[in-house]
Amino acid sequence: MKILVAAFDSFGGEKINPALEAVKLLADEIAGAEIVKLEIPTVFHKSAETLREKALEVKPDMILCVGQAGGRFAITPERVAINQDDARIPDNEDNQPIDVSIQEDGAPAYFATLPIKAMVEKIKAAGVPAAVSNSAGTFVCNHIMYQALYLAEKELDNIQAGFIHVPFIPEQVVDKPEKPAMSLEDIAKGLTAALEAMVEYHGKEDIKKIGGTTH
Amino acid sequence: MKILVAAFDSFGGEKINPALEAVKLLADEIAGAEIVKLEIPTVFHKSAETLREKALEVKPDMILCVGQAGGRFAITPERVAINQDDARIPDNEDNQPIDVSIQEDGAPAYFATLPIKAMVEKIKAAGVPAAVSNSAGTFVCNHIMYQALYLAEKELDNIQAGFIHVPFIPEQVVDKPEKPAMSLEDIAKGLTAALEAMVEYHGKEDIKKIGGTTH
Amino acid sequence: MKILVAAFDSFGGEKINPALEAVKLLADEIAGAEIVKLEIPTVFHKSAETLREKALEVKPDMILCVGQAGGRFAITPERVAINQDDARIPDNEDNQPIDVSIQEDGAPAYFATLPIKAMVEKIKAAGVPAAVSNSAGTFVCNHIMYQALYLAEKELDNIQAGFIHVPFIPEQVVDKPEKPAMSLEDIAKGLTAALEAMVEYHGKEDIKKIGGTTH
Amino acid sequence: MKILVAAFDSFGGEKINPALEAVKLLADEIAGAEIVKLEIPTVFHKSAETLREKALEVKPDMILCVGQAGGRFAITPERVAINQDDARIPDNEDNQPIDVSIQEDGAPAYFATLPIKAMVEKIKAAGVPAAVSNSAGTFVCNHIMYQALYLAEKELDNIQAGFIHVPFIPEQVVDKPEKPAMSLEDIAKGLTAALEAMVEYHGKEDIKKIGGTTH
């Protein structure tokens, strides 16, 4: 089995992206699956093209995209991606779309086809805080998750795909009071656990476990 | 013009629902529009039936549903509702669906058809904190927003519809340390401003204004 | 009985100080006590001189100083003032002392001599969130509380004195996401309840009630 | 040079105390100073007796006590300890003092005699979030800091002493949503940096650097 794991480069004035650094730390094989790593630019659409090219070349069995969510306390597999770009800040090539559809012929939203509840359980069992998130925002992270699922539907035979947001690492918050952080080692440990769950539940139903929020 | 404004009764151990109390305080006419108020039960599907019956009877030009988001700092018009119930707590009739579609033949998500950016601007101009929210959660609030938009599409000639989440009021957080609150008067003031924006932008495009989040 | 209630003018780029605005809303008589209101400048030492002059003139039975604590969720009577100025920002006359004693011959700290636990209970009973705070910071608020207690000890026959911090009001946080606020009416209601407790417990022991923190 | 580093055992339902675990990870020699480690019980007064016995035996040049501050985002050297116990929860021997002086003949407060600003700078330079804290609470952490400084004054020839609070570690917050954590390795790295600063500034003035708060 082959899993394509894509992570963004740094953005928003940060020198590094913990998502990318953690993906670099992943083993090349996890739970018997080959891990193919890919760096993608923090740019609307160009990120998706980079992912598409690699996916068509590698022909993975699953795709996991990873991005930074500065301010979150836990590793958060995303439940859903919505068909809308609404950039609070410019991307790395100064695009700042406001309330624009990502794909004219795409669904209003795609639900992750990865076992997000099992992933959360597995990450927590590894001693790392995790939770399902119900919004990937409206910037490039939601964009790439949407694009990955659109791509899977249109060109990749509906392979399973999804997205995980990870917190800042401590170095990033030294001058950001009251911002949570997680060590790179714990992020990598959490991503490894998530990938193990993906392999274990590949082609199977996700576990039924409470993971929603009242708002 | 007629606007149906629906709000939930109390749930989750709370004695009141600030959404409902604030809606009761609204004037019967706002910006020339007649405001029709409706209390709906905090129950999956039954809430939607109550809304449907009233809407078919009243034939409103727009629908605004309002619910409590304990822990939020601002009044938050919701951008999107997703086709999924995932209840962290039981509803008021002890239903607790986990990862279940709301409507088998519904879209994966519906975007609010209300001018959410204009509503946020108008609420803030009234001196009340407001922001677009990108997730209404996976409980009855997301449920009723989804159902309202589904109903509008299927039976109400695509009238505009959407949802607003409001914070706790001070009385509710007296014994909940570090939880934000907003006075009932400010919530009612904010909802009034939102309704004014709905009337002003009825049938028109929303304003183009940054209102997204990076995650 | 006469109570001198002093509040700071605005600082730190804010147009108003909710402490001062709320004090202006107080009745001139509360629980039988005459309320003498005083505006003090947000300036190290000068604030204390203003307070001292008024106190020597008015000869109050108690002193309550009130200041803004932007970011707090509740009305917080302070437990203790420490003999140290350490300004994160300049005061309104550009003084920015760092790690300097307030009074060379003063105690390292003064505990509030007001019934802070009873005040918290009374504020909460009025439906307004409240808690004891164990630090008034190291800016002018801690400074004036220290000075008020020093003054009471040295020149005012040990009359009871203390300090209350109040949150931002909604107008102040319209463009400050995730910052809690409290309406001016609720702040005034809370201060009134605190003053009632001060009158009721004047000269008596405070109630014994848990109000500490583990850190 | 010899430094006595004391840390509390676990309390409040937690299985471990990250303070103690991190202290165990410290090297036996840091910046040329011998590090003498001591576990102290989370019990009012008994903790102080344990510290006193060890200090009289070891005759350290400095004392650093370390405790857990669940909910804090950073490593926080404490500025001041106050002469008051006010326990929100019982200690490990079910004592729960409310508003009681720690030492009848003690000062109202003791300021840390460690170079807290230099310690914060050094911890941050090591890539670990840190800040001065202005309150150690009113539980055993404030108690032991107060007792250590009282002891230093009364029986240890005024050697330098102080206290550092450390955050939860990730394992502790797996089921505590929205609670920050720091890895044990980063806590140990931060404590090491703090001890290096203590050695470097031993007997010297602390640096003059902004480190206060407005409240």
From TrEMBL, chains A, B, C, D:
Catalysed conversion reaction: Release of an N-terminal pyroglutamyl group from a polypeptide, the second amino acid generally not being Pro
Active-site residues (renumbered): E78, C141, H165
Database matches in InterPro entries: Peptidase_C15 (IPR000816), Peptidase_C15-like (IPR016125), Peptidase_C15-like_sf (IPR036440), PGP-I_bact-type (IPR029762), PGPEP1_Cys_AS (IPR033694), PGPEP1_Glu_AS (IPR033693)
Keywords, ordered alphabetically: Cytoplasm, Hydrolase, Protease, Thiol protease
Keyword field contains Hydrolase: yes
PROSITE patterns, A to Z: PYRASE_CYS, PYRASE_GLU
Gene Ontology molecular function: any one: pyroglutamyl-peptidase activity
HAMAP family: Pyrrolid_peptidase (MF_00417)
Assembly and binders: Homotetramer.
Assigned protein family: Belongs to the peptidase C15 family.
UniProt-recorded name of the protein: Pyrrolidone-carboxylate peptidase
Organism: Jeotgalibaca dankookensis
Lineage: Bacteria, Bacillati, Bacillota, Bacilli, Lactobacillales
